[in-house]
Structure to design on (760 residues):
């Protein structure tokens, strides 16, 4: 959502001032002593030159109160309603045009979104519970107002008239305006404006309102949770000491293992006690029983409102704004993945079960009964780690010592700079929490040097913060009513476990998550459109999943990897206190980088089948016909056992499956589809030379910059020179080294052709 327009010329921000305050502003790292070791790695001559330029737009403010949020929200809702009333009273279907109807509506949408995106952000990041609660109340108000606005027959009739005039050749529009008109018309038709019967309209409004309330309550339950399970230190044997030392304790001295990702990964990968892993897994999958009721009610309401709109199911309704053509085509794609990957997944499972048997033979186990005779859900991560260490010489804890979070992030941004022609400058700006850091994003000089927007990094876990890693748009990019550019602000938000006196080290899987979420944030910054657009849900993950490939490239890993003891004298002291013997080398060893790369597709079939399981669960519950009440607990457990093939332990895991409560209802399949299409892009254009700037800039121009301003399949096809297909994916995932059966030498050894016919 960026348009290179109205960019101020270079202006010396500080001219001849050398006061401490000016230096702090010019070099904001000086105001953060804990990050001084990174100062000179951050600032190059190019950065210093760039920092002499003043952004044409100030960063947003996050200073507010709960009452101000509610007052502001009410005012915004009222102003939009007043605009629509004015349009309805002054225009008729014969006089309405894009410029006198859509343009003022879009300008209002832009102005409102600048404020509401920040209002909604507080619910997931604020330390202040009252602010979080006000944010959620505001969200309910906005959802209700948006639903009512989209049900206005008067505005819908005007939009329909403009759309039909354009379709009949009566009003010529630029391509983006035409597509915006198409999406606006579709939105009114698919959200209630077309319901003629007044009684049905009232039923629809009531159902949508109840659905929104149910979803907000479910999201709050997940976001606010600080649940955990207590263990003795002995029961957590094998878990890294740094994790144990940071855990809270109860009066009995037991350690609290929360269900946040840092604790979950550490326990499931490293706890040597199978009983501990089992207890933790069962407790994690037993949370939020109230959300089971909420999910089933939300599904019932979604499917019933879809039928009121003339669709068979909610899933059919949701496909209207996707790249996928139909529910049936998505089901076909998911079932193909399930069928084709099953033999390889079975082989992966046999390999891990062999690893389990060998481990038990050599070390014993506290398992008993059937658990010892099979591979269970709580076994997978533990024995996968052992397999990687023994077969591929990959020690996840040793590797993490080379990926201190701040240094790794700087390396990631540098890679984005090289590939996409960007520059990131650390800056001092208002933030919602003191640990948040901010960057200015600019085009590189050879790309014009224009300002792009602001990037916010909120990395560490805290009470009340949503635990999942994600990227939020803070302000959109668009062209204003004065024909000037408003620049976007985006964010990377994670919940890493952090102890101020220690380095925060990333596991390789966390490094992958960082690349993924930064991919979302960068996409928001480089999108280049006149209006703000949401992308199709089954497109939006493709750019981020594509970027995950870079953390499997040995040369990239070596660029990112620097042993933390070389980053500061404090970190060296910390390492010396924890270790004896020779200090590791400064740079990630080449062999270790190559060993990591060899594990890229290890257990890849199992990982994809897990995505298929979640996608089929989501699609099935939202594709129930009339009278088809869904027992989500039964479906969850039966599907998981059937698809994953692990020992069955019934749970209510669907209650903590956050995506159907957010914007991924009937759309979780996007992760599987995006993996397939992203692999196509990677293999056909980036794999041979991941750092090729020409390819990166072409990808930025053809795929990232259009955003949702045109059909997303068109963007992908423009870049690929054809429609995307699944050939590269099956060729990649079956290329795992060291498989025993030679499975990948069979039907799926595909000679990949850029011009091959489309197969999915």
């Amino acid at each position: 959502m960026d348009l290179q327009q109205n960019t101020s010329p270079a202006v010396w921000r500080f001219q001849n001032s050398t006061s401490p305050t000016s230096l702090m502003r010019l070099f904001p790292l000086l105001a953060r002593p804990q990050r001084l070791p990174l100062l000179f790695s951050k600032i190059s001559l190019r950065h210093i030159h760039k920092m002499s330029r003043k952004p044409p737009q100030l960063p947003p403010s996050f200073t507010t109160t709960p009452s101000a949020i509610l007052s502001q929200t009410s005012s915004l809702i009222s102003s939009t309603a007043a605009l629509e009333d004015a349009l309805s009273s002054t225009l008729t279907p014969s006089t309405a045009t894009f410029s006198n109807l859509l343009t003022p509506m879009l300008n209002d949408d832009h102005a409102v979104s600048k404020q509401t995106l920040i209002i909604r952000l507080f619910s997931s990041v604020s330390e202040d519970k009252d602010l979080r609660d006000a944010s959620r109340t505001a969200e309910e108000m906005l959802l209700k107002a948006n639903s009512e606005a989209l049900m206005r027959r008067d505005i819908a009739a005007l939009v329909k008239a403009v759309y039909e005039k354009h379709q009949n050749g009566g009003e010529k529009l630029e391509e983006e305006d035409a597509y915006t008109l198409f999406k606006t018309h579709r939105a009114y038709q698919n959200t209630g404006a077309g319901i003629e019967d007044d009684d049905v309209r009232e039923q629809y409004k009531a159902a949508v309102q109840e659905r929104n309330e149910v979803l907000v309550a479910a999201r709050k339950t997940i976001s606010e949770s600080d649940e955990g399970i207590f263990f003795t230190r002995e029961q957590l044997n094998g878990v890294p000491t740094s994790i144990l030392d940071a855990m809270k304790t109860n009066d009995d001295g037991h350690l609290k293992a929360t269900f946040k990702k840092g604790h979950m990964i550490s326990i499931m990968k490293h706890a040597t006690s199978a009983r501990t892993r089992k207890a933790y897994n069962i407790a994690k999958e037993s949370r939020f029983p109230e959300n089971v009721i909420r999910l089933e009610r939300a599904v019932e309401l979604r499917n019933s409102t879809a039928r009121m709109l003339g669709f068979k199911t909610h899933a059919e309704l949701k496909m209207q704004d996707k790249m996928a053509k139909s529910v049936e085509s998505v089901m076909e794609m998911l079932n193909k993945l399930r069928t084709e990957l099953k033999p390889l997944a079975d082989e992966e499972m046999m390999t891990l079960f062999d690893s389990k048997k060998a481990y038990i033979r050599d070390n014993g186990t506290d398992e008993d009964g059937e658990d010892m005779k099979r591979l269970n859900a709580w076994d997978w991560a533990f024995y996968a780690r052992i397999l990687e260490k023994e077969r591929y010489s990959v020690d996840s804890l040793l590797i993490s010592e080379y990926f201190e979070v701040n240094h790794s992030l700087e390396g990631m941004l540098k890679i984005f700079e090289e590939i996409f022609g960007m520059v990131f400058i650390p800056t001092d700006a208002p933030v919602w929490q003191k640990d948040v850091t901010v960057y200015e994003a600019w085009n590189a000089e050879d790309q014009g040097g224009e300002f792009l927007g602001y990037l916010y990094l909120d990395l560490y876990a805290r009470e009340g913060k949503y635990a999942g890693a994600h990227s939020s748009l803070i302000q959109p990019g668009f062209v204003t009513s004065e024909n000037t550019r408003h620049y976007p602000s985006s964010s990377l938000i994670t919940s890493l476990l952090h102890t101020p006196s220690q380095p925060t080290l990333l596991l390789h899987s966390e490094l992958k998550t960082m690349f993924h979420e930064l991919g979302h944030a960068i996409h928001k910054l480089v999108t280049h459109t006149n209006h703000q657009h949401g992308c199709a849900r089954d497109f939006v993950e493709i750019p981020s999943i594509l970027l995950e490939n870079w953390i499997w490239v040995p040369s990239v890993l070596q660029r990112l990897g620097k042993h933390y003891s070389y980053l500061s004298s404090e970190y060296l002291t910390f390492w010396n206190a924890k270790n004896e013997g020779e200090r590791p080398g400064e740079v990630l060893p080449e062999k270790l980088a190559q060993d990591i790369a060899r594990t890229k597709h290890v257990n890849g079939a199992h990982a994809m089948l897990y995505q298929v399981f979640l996608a089929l669960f989501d699609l099935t519950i939202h594709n129930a016909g009339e009278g088809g009440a869904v027992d989500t607990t039964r479906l969850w457990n039966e599907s998981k056992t059937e698809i994953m093939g692990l020992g069955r332990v019934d749970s209510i895991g669907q209650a903590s499956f956050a995506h159907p409560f957010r914007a991924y209802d009937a759309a979780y399949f996007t992760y599987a589809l995006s993996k397939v299409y992203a692999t196509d892009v990677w293999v056909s254009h980036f794999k041979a030379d991941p750092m090729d700037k020409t390819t990166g800039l072409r990808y930025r121009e053809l795929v990232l910059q259009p955003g949702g301003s045109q059909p997303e399949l068109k963007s992908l096809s423009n870049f690929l020179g054809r429609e995307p297909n699944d050939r590269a994916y099956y060729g990649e995932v079956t290329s795992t080294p060291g498989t025993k059966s030679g499975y990948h030498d069979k039907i799926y050894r595909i000679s990949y052709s850029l011009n091959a016919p489309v197969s999915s």
